[in-house]
UniProtKB/TrEMBL annotation:
Regions crossing the membrane: 5-23, 29-51, 63-86, 98-119
Assigned keywords, A-Z: Membrane, Transmembrane, Transmembrane helix
Domain of life: Bacteria
Lineage: Bacteria, Bacillati, Bacillota, Clostridia, Lachnospirales
Protein known as: Uncharacterized protein
Length: 123
């Protein structure tokens, strides 16, 4: 379980670092598609699937969906929103609706993982 958390946080941190150190203005759209709509959701889904399949933390595993949702929102806030705030010298509020996107991806992954566990135990 700890390894899964470390892997997720590592991928999340590398995506933020990549934005600030390796992406320029012309790469922003590609970064958004690749990371915000590709790598982070897929990572969230796969790790949630593993958590659900192995039933880590029992019924409390669903709390991770909220954590994944918050981390997804923070990824956007730490990249595009912060760049916008620096450029225009104003403070933007986080887009809290981004939390819902991360939660939904995680719930689907955990649901499928839990379904796999249930199906295997009933065979």
């Amino acid at each position: 379980m700890l390894l899964l958390i470390i892997v997720y946080l590592g991928i999340w941190a590398v995506s933020i670092i990549a934005f600030w150190f390796f992406i320029n203005e012309s790469d922003a759209m590609g970064y958004s598609i690749m990371v915000m709509w590709g790598i982070l959701p897929v990572t969230t889904f796969v790790i949630s699937l593993i958590i659900g399949k192995n039933n880590y933390m029992g019924k409390r595993k669903w709390i991770f969906s909220v954590v994944f949702g918050i981390m997804y929102m923070l990824a956007e806030y730490a990249t595009f929103s912060t760049a916008n705030m620096i450029t225009f010298k104003k403070i933007n509020a986080p887009q809290f609706e981004m939390i819902l996107v991360g939660i939904i991806v995680s719930i689907v992954g955990m649901g499928i993982g839990s379904g796999i566990k249930y199906a295997k135990s009933n065979l």
